[in-house]
Amino acid sequence: MSALRHRAAQGHAAYRAGLITGHEPGEIIVESQGSVYSWCGCRDLPTGRRLGARCLRRGQSGHGSWYFSVDLPAGPGWERRRIRRGGFRDRAVARALLGAWLTHMKV
Question: How many independent structural domains does the chain possess?
């Protein structure tokens, strides 16, 4: 392990232990207030790839689902950690559940 990577691992251990941030050990610290977005599973017929934001029906009532996403602090090895939940029928439900999740995690 390189010296830089070793220092990063030590820093991460101190971060997780609550020594750097002043938070309690094991406390979940949310790094963002989250986002709400819609997504559908439509695919391009010739290629079979997902259309995503290019879907012409996106935004129409009853098409696709709503999701929320929240970024958490980096995990072991400094990889990105994200909580994503979805399949909600409309934006209001996704926003309400995002708010409930953030409240439950005591942001």
Answer: 1
